[in-house]
Specification:
about 280 residues, four-stranded mixed beta sheet, alpha+beta, globular
Amino acid sequence: MIATRIGAALAAAWMLAVAAPVGAVEEDPAWAQVRQGSQGAPQVIGSYSNGCIAGAVQLPPEGPGYQIIRLSRNRNWGHPTLVATLADLGRRAAAAGLPPLLIADMGQPRGGPITDHAAHENGLDADIWLRLDLPLLARDQRETLKPEFITGAWTDYIPRGALSPQQAELIRLAATEPRVERIFIHPAIKRELCAMNWDDRSWLHNVRPWTGHNEHLHIRIGCPSGSPLCREQDPAPPGDGCGADLMSWFPMRAPVPKKGGKPYVPPPMPAACTAVLTAP
């Protein structure tokens, strides 16, 4: 039941702390084919990149201030605290005059390995596209939407005007949600945010640079109460993250695979996840 995942050595070293390493995850069909969450109280098991969730619930396909895209993927599942956080963010975004947020992948009904992500396994992660130009659409119209890239995957800069004030405000709103512990975003976008004038800069601490987030922001909440098997992420460094730790990302260079390098082999999933997968 353990998926085969390919990742760079850097991704392996940071697996708990990051959102999307260099390299993709191959989902395990056993987890991807389950269409419903398990019965019982919500329980988060394991880490963001190696875990599962019992008792997950779905975020409704649309609500005040948001709409879920690509519903056919069945990835709008998560812990009730994550669902409540996204619903609250949608209402705050609507009150701020933003168009409906495009919520993409959260997690699978019972978590576990999931294609295109190194995390999103234990019901505490969600992606929101930075695209803010659409009204509320019919569900079938959301299946074929394309993201708008703010910058290239390994570029050091953002073209002038590519990041709008509305997009910056969306990131700020997400980072100031009380239950949000991390926002992952492309390093060049983080640098752009750091250069802007903000009356309060404390929220920038929650916005962390990472590759693979040049067209969306990745929201992460912490381990909820009642989940003793949930593995916390390491705390972010102190400060607003606009100094040396951010600048260490530049110049950005795409990794060069080492000849003969061995693929990253993930650790076994937590033993408790076997029962989650097979539960009613």
